[in-house]
Write a structure and sequence with these properties.
The complex is a heterodimer. Chain A is mainly β. Chain A contains no helices and 11 strands. By secondary structure, chain B is mainly β. In chain B, strands 2, 5, 6, 10, 11 and 12 form a 6-stranded mixed β-sheet that branches. In chain B, strands 3-9-8-7 form a 4-stranded antiparallel β-sheet, with no helix packed on it. Classes of the chains: A mainly beta, B mainly beta.
Chain lengths: 110, 114
């Protein structure tokens, strides 16, 4: 029972590099989202999607891109990494308001 | 817009103590309310939920009652264990406008000592 799977779990980048955090879910949920979690800041919504082909910005979208070509996958792209993007990133899908989270991806930007 | 306010932590208790973590919300209509728990190094997972006024959600000895008159959803447990040490998040999902976007509180860290 996979649920929501995120890869990689850990990543170190240099400033200016780009990368993609992968997220896949096997529950056929329409709604998917990306959050970042920083100490003392709680969870902040980056981008979300209500179905394949539909994405929208959350609270902190700058520096991130998303696409949703299939129901299952919702990758998050960092275009040009900055130290301020050092964080733990969580992908989540939702059904009837309940969120199902991945285990997180810890990103460090040097 | 919708908002969730929960008590700041950390909350530090001895094993077998009574726990209350306060959560109040602002929302129009009749939102669904949730408590999530995040154990160290893990993602969040649903602890309990309530979808209408006066509903009581319960799981693993934790309880919370949806109080519309006080717009609250306080989390309680009669006797905490060391294994309950985690961060607890209160959240709501609005009922108006078809919004899928949940609103989270900032989280409350619970530390339980033996």
């Amino acid at each position: 029972n996979a649920g929501v799977t995120q890869t990689p779990k850990f990543q170190v980048l240099k400033t200016g590099q780009s990368m993609t955090l992968q997220c896949a879910q096997d529950m056929n949920h329409e709604y998917m989202s990306w959050y970042r979690q920083d100490p003392g800041m709680g969870l902040r919504l980056i981008h979300y999607s209500v179905g394949a082909g539909i994405t929208d910005q959350g609270e902190v979208p700058n520096g991130y891109n998303v696409s949703r070509s299939t129901t299952e996958d919702f990758p998050l792209r960092l275009l040009s990494a900055a130290p301020s993007q050092t964080s733990v990133y969580f992908c989540a899908s939702s059904y009837l308001g309940e969120l199902f989270f991945g285990e997180g991806s810890r990103l460090t930007v040097l | 817009g919708d908002s969730v306010t929960q008590m700041e932590g950390p909350v530090t208790l001895s094993e077998e103590a009574f726990l209350t973590i306060n959560c109040t919300y602002t929302a129009t209509g009749y939102p669904s309310l949730f408590w999530y728990v995040q154990y160290p190094g893990e993602g969040l997972q649903l602890l309990l939920k309530a979808t209408k006024a006066d509903d009581k959600g319960s799981n693993k000895g934790f309880e919370a009652t949806y109080r519309k008159e006080t717009t609250s959803f306080h989390l309680e447990k009669g006797s905490v264990q060391v294994s309950d040490s985690a961060v607890y998040f209160c959240a709501l999902r609005g009922s108006s406008g078809g919004s899928y976007i949940p609103t989270f509180g900032r989280g409350t860290s619970l530390i339980v000592h033996p």
